[in-house]
Amino acid sequence: MTGWERTACVVRETHGHWIRQVTDALRSAGLGVVLISPPVTAEERVELAGLAEDVWVVQDVRDADAVAKTILDHTGGVAPAGVLTAAEGVIAATARVGELLGTARCPADVFVLAHNKFAVREMLAGAGLPGPRFAAIGDAAQAGAVAAEVGLPAIVKPVNGAASNLVRTVHTVGELVEAYRLLAERLPASPDARYHRPVEGRPGTRSIDPTTVFLVEGLLRGQEYAIDVLVRDGTAEPVELVGKPLIDERKFELGMCCPPLELTDERAKLITSAAVDAVRALGLDNTCAHVEVIDDELTGPTIVEVNGGRPVGGATAELLRLRTGVDMFAEMVSLALGTPPPQRDGATIPVPLGELILYPSGTGRLVRVHGLDELEELPEVISVVTTVTPGQWLSDEQEVYAVNVFVAGFGDHEELAALYADASRLIRFELEELP
Known about the structure:
Blueprint: E1 7-11, H1 18-28, E2 32-37, H2 42-49, E3 54-57, H3 64-75, E4 82-84, H4 91-101, H5 108-114, H6 117-126, E5 134-137, H7 143-150, E6 154-158, E7 168-170, H8 173-186, E8 214-218, E9 222-232, E10 235-238, E11 242-247, E12 253-258, H9 265-281, E13 287-296, E14 300-308, H10 316-324, H11 328-337, E15 353-358, E16 363-370, H12 372-376, E17 381-386, E18 393-395, E19 403-407, H13 413-426, E20 428-432
Parallel strand pairs: 1-2, 1-4, 2-3
Antiparallel strand pairs: 5-8, 6-7, 6-8, 9-10, 9-11, 9-13, 11-12, 12-15, 13-14, 15-19, 16-18, 16-20, 17-19
Helix pairs in contact: 1-11, 3-4, 4-5
């Protein structure tokens, strides 16, 4: 392969629906694509071959030096057009590769900080932005002191977690002790590599062991929203606000609405401004961020988390595309490579749209998803996107957007909830449990 200056390297860690979206966006921009991947099976290599011109294997894709060396060994020392990823666990390492190759558009240290939830809380508080009281807990014996500092009820979460993995709500000191012990037991055994490396933060601060130190935050009360923000050369552009009216006790998102129903323009502007302020406070530039906000009863729009370096996860980018005409992955590619912004089409469907998200129950390897044909026949359904494949390991403790149902024709949250109930009755995940 030649023309490395017109070829982008995409770093993958595991299976991800985003990979095809990014590679399609790169090809639409006239670029060649190479995938950087951990060791793959012969079957996986065949699957990935349809996404890129080549697959280059690196034992540990979090090792920036090794990834950069592999790229230069293949290109004869020529830097590619850029190196990018939308895999949460390797965004910071991929940015470091870009620094080594001279193609980085946003400093890697910014992403390092953005993926440390405790450091993010400190940065946002230092910038004067509203937020819950928070503290780190590193031992079950600290539960009483932490509860007194933060207040109860509270949320306990991994300091570098994603997809609502092992997020727990606690109402008493005893429940905080139990939550600490649960996370301390589960995370060391997690197959997710992010929990097996120290979590860095601000320069000069000590790293955190994510299997023993967790974040505790005061519980926010109010409606939750999400918004993606594009930042190009210091100018932040928020994309459409999304409401999250249906959330279960695990903090999993069951149904979303774009734009939010029953939200005044004044509140929408305040929520959007809070997201933009958070992105700026963290120093994100020439990249995108997915920001989650709760319009708290006391503090107003308050940041829940900032996911720097990637757009919204799962298939929700399709919700934004249908509603606004903005292709978030094409925008991400443009920002990562410094190419002109992609052309935007008008909204495909200008009425309020919803997304229903169906999760597997139980744990095991996926054999088949039943009921998809029946689901597509519901009159309110526009399309159905499945992001999981047979053989993939699934757990009902992980927020995997397995089946995404895009709907229209609802008038309020109750009707959206009724649609969710109809959809969930039709879908069944057949899982094969390991002995």
